[in-house]
Amino acid sequence: MSKNQINKYVWLVETLYKAKKITLKEINRKWTATELSEGEEIPRRTFNNWRNAVEEMFGLVIMCDKHDGDRYYIENRDDMDEGGFQRWLLNTISVNNTLIDNKSLSDRILLENIPSGQDYLATIMEAMKKSKVLDVTYKSYWSDREHAFQIAPYCVKLFRQRWYVVGNSVYENKIRIYALDRFIEVNISDEPFKYPKKFKPEGYFKECFGIIHDDDYSLETVKLKVDSGQANYLRSLPMHASQKEVERNEDYSVFTLYLRPTFDFQQELLWNGEALEVLEPLWLRREIAGIIKRMWNNYHKK
Predict the structure, then answer these.
(1) Which domain holds residue 133?
(2) Reduced to 3 states, what is the DSSP secondary structure of residue 40?
(3) Counted domains in the chain
(4) How far apart are the first and last CA of the chain?
(5) Does the pLDDT value for residue 1 go beyond 60?
(6) Tens of pLDDT along 42-59?
(7) Beta bridge partners of 280
(8) Which end of the chain is more exposed for a tag (fewer CB within 10 A), N or C?
(9) How far apart are CA 150 and CA 171, in angstroms?
């Protein structure tokens, strides 16, 4: 199936989602205004084929309300609000459609660069599907030397414009996380591995802020005091799924999160600058205060 065809299915889903209910005539009016359509309407038979494809690919059921002017709608539209892989895939292709429809504005659309790690995604996913061990050559940020080793790939994760692979290090027999943009070479070996039934990717990172999974940090409640302006940002983009707003007034809000306060989470706290204050736990408050003090000292050296 071509990417262009998938883009058409996603366009239909997004159109139905935004409209809630819409007739085929109205759909075609919107469709012919896009570059994807090349000025041609969607025949009813083709439209029904698209409906079936959308259900097969995304699990979304498109129904027709005969009692409301033959208007089409997504029966299980709530599934799109639950997040996860399908929602991310739809969003990604939807953005792609928007960019395609606005190629004439390419010099006015500024995008973030994603390191070249995605070049290895196809190879890693093929190894995951075939349950084959990967032969990799890797160079970390902390070493000038390249290292060759084997990993059994369990899952991949995107975080902060970087792709990571989570897998079992064959030599250490321990789960490790590797940044794809640090790979020098990746090849699929003939050696099989058995994917552990007890390993659940979502559960593995459930207690984490980002990409660091470190059992040396205990799972605990973190309480944050955030000024009213920055609190709006945290409401719209929570730091973690466990985030709750427990206090709010004109000057500030207090949020709680239940997670492991690892290094990447501490960096996120510092990113908020003076707009955020750690209230609990006390050790984390002192840790952040110590970092800030050392930063202050760096800027006040004679």
Answers:
(1) 116-204
(2) coil
(3) 3
(4) 64
(5) no
(6) 999 999 999 999 888 888
(7) 223
(8) C
(9) 7
Strand partners of residue 270 = none
Residue 161 falls in which region: left (phi positive, over 0), alpha (psi -120 to 50) or beta: left
Distance, CA of 33 to CA of 64 (rounded, Å): 23
φ/ψ bin of 47: left (φ > 0), alpha (ψ from -120 to 50), beta (otherwise): alpha
Judged by average pLDDT, the poorest of 153-157, 287-291, 298-302 is: 298-302
CA 75 to chain centre: 25
Same domain for 160 and 226? no
Going by DSSP bridges, is the β-strand pair 276-280/220-227 parallel, antiparallel, or unpaired? antiparallel
> What are the E-state strand segments in the chain?
62-65, 71-74, 132-138, 147-159, 162-169, 174-179, 183-192, 220-227, 244-248, 252-259, 276-280
Tokens of 82: 């639950």
**Same domain for 100 and 68:** yes
Task: Indicate the residue type of 25.
Answer: K
């064959």: which residue's tokens?
Answer: 170
For the chain, what is the radius of gyration of the CA atoms? Answer: 24
Domain match, 101 and 27 both: yes
Amino acid at 116: S
Tell me the one-letter amino acid at 154. Answer: Y
Enter the pTM of the model: 0.74
Residue with tokens 């070049």: 119
Q: What is the pLDDT of residues 280-296, one digit of tens each?
A: 999 999 999 999 999 99
